[in-house]
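Two quick folds needed for the group meeting slides. Do the first one here.
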Amino acid sequence: MRLFEQRWAIRILACLHDQRGARFVVLKNRLELASESLSKGLDGLMEQGFVQRNPGYGHPLRPEYILTDAGARLGPWCSRFEDTVQRLRAADVVYRKWSVPVLLSVDAQPRSFTSVRQELGVTPRALSQCFDRLVRADLAQVQSGYATTSAGGLVVQAAWGILGSG
């Protein structure tokens, strides 16, 4: 679940999987990220053991990054997740901090605001804003409680692939 807390982690893993490794500048341009955001994302993924610098590649000031064995197990799932999110045109919503945990929480059955808030430990304001974004993006709906839509279900299915492979 920590991967979903880091805004760029899934996208970085997907890109490294698809490209079979990449230099910093290639990742930065492909993902359209600021250098600082990419550095933080790569540092977090290296700390978690999913990414490493390619030990036998190039100049030390222009390192190439590759997936570790653990990252290689997640890579295909991250790539599928990214494909799903892009197909739904929902990246701006899905890659926010609470979006995927909230979708996972409400997928099995409609849930009340309070039960989701208590389960995830999210503040009422953050959860309210998250639900607003998810409903506007047609990824969640309000019935007798909050629930996923069919598009939200696709995101959840792709997320479970990542969680099941880790």
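Then this one, please, same format:
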Amino acid sequence: MIQRILLATDGSETALKATRWAAELAKTYNAKVTVLHVVHIPAALAGSTVLPGGATDVAVVTRLMEQAAEGVITITVPLLEEAGVEYDSRIEYGHTADTIVRVAEEEKADLIVMGSRGLTDASALLLGSVSHKVLHVVHDKPVLIVR
């Protein structure tokens, strides 16, 4: 039933909880996990010549974001390795929710697993959340949101 799991992670504590769920499900169903971290570069920064913190080069900021993304993957995969499940990892760039949905389609994921930011209903309504957006866009596969 479940052969491919997409684990969307940002390295947060709830994302690590979601990783544990994905690992257990992968073990149970002998499924492969794709670990996805999406680097979202806000439009305000794209093309800037002077960036927050005094950086003046978009390439420098991009490199820092890539290093942070690699760090997220580095703290996530040991949990999958401990569980002995097959996995691969992807770092993608773009709008987070849209990219998660796109990669789920590309990977032919049977299940999307992700953590919740823990926003209150009112905050989620005003600000939106990645998990909320994914949940409302994906209609052809289950989404597990871990708190």
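Slide caption for protein two: The first strand starts at residue 4 and ends at 8.
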